[in-house]
């Protein structure tokens, strides 16, 4: 089985781990739940597209794995940061929303999460850092550092 097939199997397994989706969750609730997760890898809270990109990340084979916690825009932190984070839904529609996340750890950070409806529930489809360094998560997972 090639790595694309394995990535698909991993994505399906992660979907099964998500458990029952909460139909009344808001986009902000979904992003807040992401910050409560222990790691910064693929999550059942991500869309199928984003989970597949985590599974297909070619950079580990080329020496460039995601080496930071994208949720805080720097190295992983050993403590819970959920108390130091503010979540504000800035754009909302029936199928797409944006949630701004601001936090101060070593330095102020602002991240914008694009949240979309997938299979009737809100899921995170993209993350953009608005500070330094700036990046788009899907581009990083594809190996594009520009």
Describe this structure in words.
With 146 residues, the protein is of the alpha+beta class. Helices cover 26% and strands 27% of the residues. The chain is built from four helices and five strands, in the order αααβββββα. The chain has helices spanning 3-17, 27-36, 48-55, 137-141; strands at 85-92, 96-104, 108-118, 121-129, 135-136. Strands 1-2-3-4-5 form a five-stranded antiparallel beta sheet. A hairpin with a 3-residue loop joins strand 1 (85-92) and strand 2. The chain is globular. Mean pLDDT is 78; it is low at 1-20 and 60-64.
List the helices and strands and how they pair.
Elements: H1 3-17, H2 27-36, H3 48-55, E1 85-92, E2 96-104, E3 108-118, E4 121-129, E5 135-136, H4 137-141
Antiparallel strand pairs: 1-2, 2-3, 3-4, 4-5
Helix pairs in contact: 1-3
Could you give the count of β-strands?
Answer: 5
User: Largest sheet, described in full?
Assistant: 5 strands, antiparallel
Task: Assess the beta-strand content as a share of residues.
Answer: 25-35%
User: Can you list the strand order of the major beta sheet?
Assistant: 1-2-3-4-5
Q: Classify the secondary structure makeup into a structural class.
A: alpha+beta
Low-confidence stretches: 1-20, 60-64
Mean pLDDT figure: 78
How many angstroms does the end-to-end distance come to?
32 Å
Number of helices: 4
User: How much is the radius of gyration in Å?
Assistant: 15 Å
What shape does the CA trace take? globular
**H and E order:** HHHEEEEEH
Please estimate the helix content. 25-40%
